[in-house]
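With this grant's support, the team has encoded backbone shapes as discrete tokens. A representative record is reproduced below.
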Amino acid sequence: ISPGLLLVAGSFAAFRLLNRGLERLVPPPPSARRNRWKWRNIWTEPETLPGTHSPSPCRFCLHPGLSEDLVGTHPPGAHSLVAVSVGYFLEDFVDMLCNQKLHQSWELLFHHSVVIVCFGIAVLLHQYVGFALVALLVEINSIFLHLRQILLMANLVHTTCYRLNSIVNLGTYVVFRIATLAWMTRWLFLNRENVPPATYAVGTVGMAIMTPMNIILFYRLLRSDFFK
């Protein structure tokens, strides 16, 4: 068994234990007690804790040459970071599957399936780790997405904090989600001759799925927080 797979399994177990014990650490407010599972799930997110994903931008600051080769090279610890992320997405996938109806969670389950497959390839092959790190830049916006959910569940919608978070959320959404996915799609297109056909197919399908999903979510956020 490769060290990467062991790290994935350890990450899965750690997030599972954290999910079980988190309600004692962060008790749900009265408005969220009807949905205790969702409250635990949000607070288990690495970005909320804060997280395992946050070192991703630091890797690019410390290793500016990383963007020149996203296939074969990566800074120390980057492979471990991607493996830990796979463990988290697996745990969240199982958590939603066990606690939420399929018609309510199919979009996130689909999203997690794509991420697990793409990141799993990077972990197993020790390649495309840099590309996976670029994808983790998307999770910077998740900090504000999850804070939005927490404020909604705590019934704090009509507050200055919620309004400020809504503005920052949309701003980081454009920069770290839409722009990042556009850059990744462009990189795949420009490097299609240097990427094996099977890997190129997985990456292309992944981008074709993730980009429309994120644009639709952006529209929903814009409509809910500003035009409702």
